[in-house]
Each structure stands twice: as C-alpha cells, then as structure tokens.
Design brief:
The protein contains 15 helices and 15 strands. By secondary structure, it is of the alpha/beta class. It has three domains: 40 residues; 138 residues, Alpha-Beta Horseshoe (Leucine-rich repeat, LRR (right-handed beta-alpha superhelix)), CATH 3.80.10.10; 139 residues, Ribonuclease Inhibitor (Leucine-rich repeat, LRR (right-handed beta-alpha superhelix)). The chain has a 13-stranded parallel sheet with strand order 1-3-5-6-7-8-9-10-11-12-13-14-15. Strands 2-4 form a two-stranded parallel sheet. β8, α9 and β9 form a beta-alpha-beta unit. The chain is globular, with a radius of gyration of 24 Å. It starts with a helix and ends with a strand.
Length: 349
C-alpha cells in the first residue's frame, strides 16, 4: 500500500489535466484515496456540468477537498441559492470564476457573498442577469476582495458607489457596463485612489473619466478600448497623474492622436505594453517618442494605421531591445523589406 504522502503527490499531478477525474472518481475508490485527497489544494471545476449543481454535491466535495482555494462555475452550470451557500464549505476559498454564467442570479450571489467572506478575487464577466444587488452583497460580505471583474453586468453608478466599502479593492474591470457614467467613475476614483488596474471599455465615457482616474497615482494598468468620446485631453491628464503605468490599451479610441501617445511616452517611461490599435491619427512622431522614452517596451500594437512608416519602425526596434511583439498589421507604410530585416517580432502582413 502506498503511503498517503506519495498518493497525494500522484493525485496532485493527476489534477493538472484530469480535474474531473480527481473530483468525482478518485475519492470513491477507497478510504485511503479519499483521505489523500484532503491534502490537495484543488482548482474546483464545475464548468462542464451543464445543469443545476446540487448542494449535496458541493457539500461532499468541500468535505473531501477542504483546502480548495479556487472554484470555476462557467456558462451553463446553474448555481442555486443552496449550492451557493454550500460553497462556503470550502473554508479556504479565495478565488471564484463565474465567466459568462447567464444562469447566475442576484439571489445566488447574495448567498455566495455571505458564505465566502475570505474571497480576494472574483470574475463575473458576462453574467448578464446580475444587478446592483450583487455589488451591494459583495460590499457587505467580502471585505477582502482585491480583484473584481463585473464586465457585462447590469451595473449602475449606484452599484459602483457601494463597492467603495471594499477597502482592499485594487483592480476593477467594468467592460460593457453601459449604465456607468462619467459621474459614477469620478465619484469612485475620488475615494478609491489605491487602484492599480482599471478596465473601463464603456462606450459612453469621456475625458471626464480619465481626468478623474488621473488622481489614482498607483495605476499601472489602464484599458479603455473603443471609447469613442475619449480625446487627447483625457489621456494627457491620465498620463500626468499616473506615471507608473506599465500597460495601456486605447484600441479603437478613434479620436486619439500623437498628443496622447507622446504624453504617455514622456510621463510614463516604465510602459511595457502599449496599444493604439485601429487609432488612425498617430504618426511617426508618436512612435519615435515611445522609442526615446520607453526602453522597457515589450509589446506594441498600432494595427491599421496608415501614417507609420519604416523610418519610425526601424528606430523603434533599434532603441527598444526588449521588444518581443510589434503589431503593425494593415499599416501600408511598413514595407516587406523591413519585415524581413527585423524578423519575427514585427507583424505587418
């Protein structure tokens, strides 16, 4: 008979690629195997259960795998109020992922928030049935939340305001939350200055939101893709206030030009990942500014820009030795000869 310690290592290896086997088959073989499962920190995976997840199953798994820290309940898996409460049986649960779970209701999230108070990371991306009721429950029940994705949730400024109770929140993503306004972002940014990462790809936002977020000096990651009302003025304010930015993504912000790119280059020299994809106004001047001021650049995306030429692209590659990916696809000013010269890091065709 193999010792429990060796079985635990074997099962830990099995769980990397066969999570469901480890969850549902291994513990039922014998008492020793069930006992060995108790030492595992399993990533609990319910996302392939295309039906209601019964509370008794969650309770049984919590008993077998008490050290579980992560649970995933994606797409068609239906989490009832009872099964949401049962998730509290995983006493060490710190991370939950409900990606595109359209069946997830406010009632289930209220139960979940009350039962899983040690949570630090939560993904509700695409959970389109949820409302401000969920944000209020999270604010009241999950005081340790630091990373929150509520993209696509029916979320308003009122719900955003309730999240100010989460005093450890540093990362928030609200892509597609069309009811969030500049006023809501401004109020939130004024009191949540500890933010390090924001994703607000919301069509209606304007420069007012970027000016407000410019007070969050700890920001290192900022994503505002397809915000068609954002202009150079807003980006300049953000760049001056958030000089530790490492990643910026303004893909599809069609009003942006060289003024925005140059402001970021001069104020945020630590930038590593920059995207102005489908922004047609920046020129060689912006690329040269990035090359001169941001030596740590590893990833650059300026696809579908007809103003960038070989001259700036070559200067960029020469000045930024850390570059791993440069995407100039659809940039007609980049010649095939330069692509051949630079090699695999440059994509233009």
């Amino acid at each position: 008979m193999l010792p429990d310690e060796l079985l635990e290592k074997i099962f830990d290896f099995v769980g990397i690629t066969h999570t469901r086997t480890l969850m549902f088959a291994v513990p039922r073989v014998c008492q020793q195997w069930q006992r060995a499962c108790g030492g595992l920190s399993l990533h609990m995976d319910f996302y392939r259960i295309n039906a209601t997840i019964p509370a008794w199953l969650v309770k049984w798994l919590a008993k077998i795998f008490p050290r579980t820290q992560t649970v995933k309940v994606w797409t068609r898996s239906h989490l009832t109020v009872e099964s949401a409460l049962a998730l509290g049986g995983f006493g060490n649960l710190t991370s939950a992922d409900f990606w595109y779970n359209w069946a997830l209701s406010d009632a289930s999230m209220v139960a979940f928030a009350s039962a899983c108070q040690a949570l630090t990371s939560l993904n509700l991306d695409g959970c389109g049935q949820l409302t401000d009721t969920t944000s209020a429950a999270l604010a009241a029940g999950c005081p340790h939340l630091a990373h929150l994705n509520m993209s696509g949730v029916r979320f308003t400024d009122l719900g955003l305001a309730t999240l100010l109770q989460l005093t450890k929140l540093t990362s928030i993503t609200l892509d597609g939350c069309g009811k969030i306004t500049d006023a809501g972002v401004a109020s939130f940014a004024a009191e949540c200055t500890r933010l390090t990462s924001v994703g607000m790809c919301i069509d209606g936002l304007t420069d007012l939101s970027l000016v407000a977020l410019g007070t969050c000096s700890n920001l290192t990651r900022a994503r505002f893709t397809s915000c068609k009302y954002i202009t150079d003025k807003g980006v300049v304010a953000l760049a001056k206030g958030c000089q530790h930015l490492i990643l910026v993504d303004f893909a599809g912000c069609v009003e942006l030009g060289d003024v925005a790119v140059i402001a970021l280059a001069k104020n945020c020299p630590s930038m590593e990942d920059v995207s102005f994809a489908s922004c047609k106004r920046p020129t060689n001047l912006g690329i040269v500014a990035l090359a001169r001021n941001c030596p740590a650049l590893t990833t650059l995306n300026f696809v579908w820009n007809q103003n960038i030429t070989d001259l700036a692209a070559r200067f960029l590659v020469e000045r930024c030795p850390a570059l791993a990916t440069v995407n100039f696809f659809g940039c007609s000013g980049i010649s095939p000869d330069l692509v051949d010269e630079v090699g695999s890091i440059l994509n233009a065709y």
